[in-house]
Amino acid sequence: MAKATSSKMTSQTATPSAAEVEALLARNGRTLEAMIKANGAVLEGMAKLGREMLEFGNARIREDLEASETLMKCKDPQEAFRLQCDFARRATQQYFEEATRLMELTAQITRNCWAPLEETGRAGTAEPERAESAPAPKAQAKSQTQPGPTKPETAAQPAG
């Protein structure tokens, strides 16, 4: 009995024929293409994001080193304090600007990633929506031909 069960399972997990694979690709080809494009958009976007962070990090390290050198040359504590405050103010502003750039890049990556999938979804649902919406004008036409009050005097008036 165990042998019969195992032979059934192996026949169910057999490799699909070329015709079955072609049929699957024909049915899902647009979706697979869209997923490939979406993955490409994610990879491209992540590369941009990585470059942006690397460039920002390099620039910040250079500025940090320059600020340290300038501070070491200070002979007056007030001047050192002023330089340190300017450095902190400038660094904070740059970090906020960079955070904004990174958020914009992330939003762009998301849009670029979803665009091919959304296009495929719209293309795949366009035909069924037309088929479903075809009867709607008939239903509207029927509702427009139903009798109803056309003059104000035919409407029910309160007794009084």
What would your notes on this structure say?
With 160 residues, the chain is mostly helical. It has a domain at 27-125. 84% of the residues lie in helices and 0% in strands. α2 (18-73) runs antiparallel to α3 (77-133).
Please write out the topology:
Elements: H1 2-12, H2 18-73, H3 77-133, H4 136-145
How many helices? The count is 4
Structural class: mainly alpha
Q: Which parts are unreliable, with pLDDT below 50 for 5 consecutive residues or more? A: 127-148
Proportion in helices? over 70%
Q: How would the global form be characterised?
A: rod-shaped
The value of Rg in angstroms is 34 Å
Distance between the termini: 89 Å
Strand content: under 5%
Largest sheet: none
Order of helices and strands: HHHH
Mean pLDDT: 79
User: How many strand elements?
Assistant: 0
